[in-house]
Design a protein that fits this description.
Strand content: 15-25%
Number of helices: 11
Structural class: alpha/beta
Helix content: 25-40%
Low-confidence stretches: 1-6, 8-16, 253-278
Number of strands: 9
Amino acid sequence: MSDEPSTTPATTDRARSFGSVAEAYDRGRPTYPAEAVAWLAGGDAKVVLELAAGTGKLTRELVDQGHAVFATEPDEAMLEVLRQRVPEVSAKVATAEEIPANDRSVDVVVVAQAFHWFDHEAALPEIARVLKPGGHVALVWNSRDERIPWVRRMGDLLGRQDLDTSSAEQLVHSDLFGFMEEASFKHWQEVNRETILDMARSRSSFAMMDEAQRERHLADVLAFYDDYGRGMDGMQIPYVTRCYRAVVVGRDDTGPSSDDQEPDGPVVSDGSDTDMLLIDFR
């Protein structure tokens, strides 16, 4: 998922609009650099829960780096593309505000291009609930590097919602998480005359346009591409991948832990004999 903040009916509609452009989203959006993904996960193989996983852009890289990944996404059409891209991952339709995982069951909760859509008052306690002691939440956004003039021109056309990572400050103001670390990584996305149209189609603003508006918008994007002068050779779009992470704070044990209760879903091992992931991914 992507683009801009939610919590109102109008922006909730936009947050759920990506299913209609799921294939374009998968073709047109950039991936994430491997070094950024390693930083987000924080080292050795982990049990990772990805919220708002979209079409699996980040999921694929997490799996390739050896993590046991469970993915949730509120839009079934987006999740169907993810299932095709990363068939080995357990995936379920769910929201960040109601996570289908037991208490203290995952090492990392990761969110790519979507944290700004969440109802943070509901989602942050849920994220803290499912994290193991010492576990952390990790957020990431791909932002075009608009220090370059022609990239700024592209931003004029496509919008700049993905440049705004200010929702990460919710972690700073939450008493559920400790110090927020930050890191950034540079990479490039190669696009051509076709995939730049998919970039345009993948925006929530495009999904909300009527047909005439869409045609005009795509014509403007093609005119920009042709004016840039690369033809079928394509262009390379520079990105800065902005990453944030924070460890869940310690919690007093005032009652029976989830380990003392019967799980309401299947028990899935994360590879150790003593540390089991209890997660309802039926």
